[in-house]
Amino acid sequence: MQGGIAVAVAFFAVYRSACAGWADVLARSGNVVAAVRLAPGNASYRVALSHLRELKDSRAEDALDHARTLNPYDWAVWIQSGLRAEARGELAQAEAFLLRAELLSRQCGPQPILANFYFRTGNRPLFWPRVKRALACATEDRKPLFDLCWSFKTDADFILREALPNTPAAGRDFLQYLLSHNLLDAAEAAGRAVADAAEPADRELLLRYTDRMADAGHWNAALEGWNALCDRKILPYEPLDRDRGPWLTNARFVAQPLNAGFDWNIREIGGVSASRRRSPDSLQIEFSGKQPEQCEVLRQFVPVRPLRSYTLQATYRLSGIAPGTGLNLRLTDAERGTEIAAVGLNQGSTQTSFTVPERVSAMRLSLWYRRMPGTTRIAGSITLTAVRLEAHQ
Amino acid sequence: MNAITAVLCFGILSLWVPGRWALAVYQCGLFGLSVAWAVPFALRPFPLRCTPELALLAAVVLYGCLQLSIGLTIYSWQTSEMVLNWGANGLVFFFVLQFSAVRRLRQRFLKRVIYFAFAVCVLSVVQNFTSTGRIFWLFPSGYTDMVFGPFVYPNQFAAFVESVLPLALYYAVRESRARLVYAAIAAIMAASEVAAASRAGCVLVLLEVLVIPWLAMRRGHVEPVPTTHYAAFDVSRSTR
Asked: Half-sphere exposure of residue A332, counting CA atoms within 13 Å on the CB side?
């Protein structure tokens, strides 16, 4: 008796397993109809069957109905049903299906789909909370969601308020999105939000933001981004202050220049090489004699107040370079490039005073080389040990 | 015993196959064997060996059947698939339990499992470093590295090694004539676990390397009966 039952059960198990295996082979080869016939309980074959039918074909809807009955907790089936209903123009039904999918899923899948649905149907009141949820749970590419937001409203403040969740990653992605689309005015608001809660993970993004803002002449925004990194010790520098100073970053070359933001930027020029030295801290720049006759070797942006007077001092050592052969420090208007002051590097130290012209809020401090008439191109090195900028009272 | 070993090996070697057919072959092989076994049993019943572990596995299968029969399942297709899975695993355990009663068969089965696992370990490590993600150097896995033999997921490979390593360690301690061989097999298995970079796996293997020889030596001449059961249980579990 027991043996008979065992044989019957084993035969049934062989049949059931073989059917499942063969149905899978059929489904993978595209014969979904036969797969459904062989494994009628498998909901995924029903969904695949619905994909084969035309949009208005009632058999597609039947297949999805069947799939939902077989596996009522599979949110993906409800999503499929919702999208098909939407395509048929049955918006209320589509929304009901999609909301059901959202209820069933504990993951992020249905949220962006619902946000897209409300976008397509133009339902703004429901779109913003939904896109906020989608942005909160999304872990990968948020760009398509930002595209939706920006298509609905080109107002970064509004998007930050209505759509951005309190997750730092979302704010970071939004800033990245705006920068990559060259929306620099809008990026100011997003940059401020990221800067307010800056953490080490924001370092590269905020440096990029600072550079982009500086290039566009948005000096206040650039300074905010830079100071956020300094305030939170993400960068080893003191925050810059237009009124009280410091005005220069890394003035004593205590750290390797970042080539970004308000730090020193060492230009890549053939025939010129730079390296930071320790004990004492300094920056050594070597000229091979094959450099261009005129070039900017080093530069730094300096935030200043218009109409205020300052004194620039530099301490350095020349080696193999004769005085008066073309090395000088130049201060120019960072936006327009007009020269404000210049001083040649001839002795061991140099000093110059100047007044910042009207409407200039940032200067460009550069180490320049310009071959002097009657001399050959310099070959040797200059070791900068300190550059100081002091404001007059 | 030979048929069970063959099906078990096929089950492990076909783990990577994404299609359901490979699982169907493994399951049909086991259920077919159970028919071949049940027919003589029906004609002339003979005594069976039972253990609490077997009852536990049977309970899982019976619970799934109960769910299906009274409609206590959300997705009956998936439940029936699980019943088949656990039924097949239970059958492996059942068969090994039955033929393990004969010491000679038991020893032969265990040694075959060790040699098979050793071959899989060697193949897996060589494949991992030379096949750029292709299973048996032939079939693309969808990944470019960390594919160990038929195991697409390194942690599953680690679980496989963890389940067989105790046998190799046990024989390394107990078999004085082939101690070096089994010690080398155990060492290579442990090394392959390190290559799989499974953190929990490495910890478990280390524990096994410390504890199993100590237990084996402490027990003196104890027969490896419990080890047989657990090994069969683990191997059948790791195939799914």
From this structure: 16
Residue A241 lies in a domain: no
- B chain contacts of residue A25, beta-carbon cutoff 8 Å: 19-21
Q: Which of A212, A231, A250 is the last residue of a domain?
A: A231
**What is the tens place of the pLDDT at every residue in A118-147?**
999 999 999 999 999 999 998 888 999 999
Of B21, B34, B74, the CB nearest to A10: B34
Comparing CB atoms, the residue among B27, B41, B76 nearest residue A41 is B76
Domain boundary among A231, A257, A273: A231
Tell me whether residue A299 is in a domain. Answer: yes
Q: What is the per-residue pLDDT across A265-276, written as a single tens digit (0 to 9) for each?
A: 999 999 999 999
Question: Confidence band (pLDDT; 50, 70, 90) for B226?
Answer: very low
Do A63 and A163 lie in one domain? The reply is yes
Q: Are strands A272-277 and A282-287 parallel, antiparallel or unpaired?
A: antiparallel
Minimum distance, in Å, between the CA of residue B189 and any CA atom of chain A = 33
The C-alpha of A21 sits at a distance from chain B's nearest C-alpha, in angstroms, of 4
Q: Do residues A110 and A44 share a domain?
A: yes
ipTM of the complex: 0.83
Q: In angstroms, what separates the C-alpha of B186 from chain A's closest C-alpha? A: 36
Who contacts B131 (Cβ-Cβ below 8 Å, separation ≥6)? B137, B147
Ramachandran area for residue A250 (φ above 0: left; ψ -120 to 50: alpha; else beta): left
pLDDT score of A59: 83
Domain ranges of chain B: 2-41+49-238
Query: What global pTM score does this model have?
Result: 0.74
